[in-house]
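Hi there, hope your week has been kind to you so far. For a while now I've been wondering how a particular protein folds. I'm sending you its amino acid sequence along with the backbone structure tokens. Could you read through the record and tell me how the tokens relate to the sequence? Take your time with it, there's no hurry, and the full record follows here.
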Amino acid sequence: MSLLPPYHLTIPILFLLLCALCGVGVAQSPSDISQISITSVICTPEVYEPGDRGTVELTIQNRGNSSVQLESVTMTGSGVQVITPSYTIVSPIGSGDSRNYLFDIIAPIEPGVYYPYISVNSVYSGFFKYPVSIRVDSKKPFIAISQAPPSLTKNRETSLQIQVANSRPDTIRNVQVIPSIQGKPAAEIMEIIPDKYFIGTLEMGEARSVDFSLTPTIETDLHFILSYQNGDNTHESEIIFPMQFSVNKRQADMALSSVSFSTVNGVQQVTGDITNIGLETAYSVTATIEGANPVFPYKDYVLGTLGPDDFANFELTFEPQEGTNTAIIIVTFKDGDGNQYSTSLPIELGGPVSTMPYIASSSGSSGGGGGQSMQFRSAGGSRNTVMVAGGPGPMGGSSGSRTTEETPSNSPPHLYIAILILVIGGGAVYLYHRKQSPKKGKKIGRKGRKDISLMKEIESYDAEPSADDPTGEISTPHRSDEK
């Protein structure tokens, strides 16, 4: 008798065995999703600006003892635009292994906190969800002008300081400050050093100062653009510095005083003092005359360097022009940066000097012209203007003569001091002689009494007649040292 089944039953038996094997696998599959966990979520940038594009990097790890087959990993936005929505072809994750998944997103326009979620789906045993926090903040880094010049002068170098601070809640990179004029780099229009300043990375709350040296040539708006990156997104912020030219309140300025005229060897000359009434030093100061014909020997006059409140003499020789009795003293000078300036000081030839603002110098120093001049100020603070009266004609008048008149002023304090010293000195001399007079009188008195006594004794000897000469005509010789 045969124990083997009939051939027509072989196929059903094999099918039942295959189903039994598959049933064992299905019975074990429900537990594999519990082995999966999300170990880290990294958002780049950490905090988004509105509309920023960034990434969310997800790490999934298998903590179980057997491999797990995932069906898909997806990210669903909640106001967040997900550019890479899902991974549908997922390789098995072995025991203890990890897989990284990267999602590209675009942040919402409105600031706030958004929570898109990650969905992890298993082939056999379901899925789970994991929320991700996306923070959107519209704050910009801070940029301001911390130190600005009080005034701007064309073609004069000045300095300016910019303050930059990261007021955002995350780190920004590739930070730089770029000066710009009318949409072009400022260095193409004027001299500015540096043409841009690279700062680098600024952590949250970190600040930095940036110094620029600029020489303005036109009146316009100077933009300082703060360029930075938040993640891979480039952003800009800016501050505007209006460049408007004005008078430098500290620069050197010239005033004319003590002007007089004379004629020497048929050539007319004008002399006076030039004072620096500004707050900065004037270099290479030179005086010349316009409105007249400069002649030898002093067509122009170099005064040299004049500090604040310093003055110096000048002398110019000229021939007046027909039909005019006015001229202009042109004073040119340079500042510490080499920029040249000029001042026009009008005068009247052979007449009163034009009144000019003036502050008397107390230093008494002289620049390149040499010599000293006395400056006086009245008690009320007004200047004693020197007036020219009846100056010489073009080629006439007495050679070397001039008549000047000064406005009245109070006596200088030096006169009172001199009078006081003379009075005290005279009194001291008088008292000294007064004290010495009695001592000399006593000495003369004692000596006089001694001489009178001696003279009387001599007279007594002369009056007594001798025995041989009763008439008294012959007297006995007498020695003055005998008593």
User: Anything to note?
Assistant: Helices lie at 10-28, 413-463. The first helix runs from residue 10 to 28. The chain has three domains: 29-136, 142-243, 254-406.
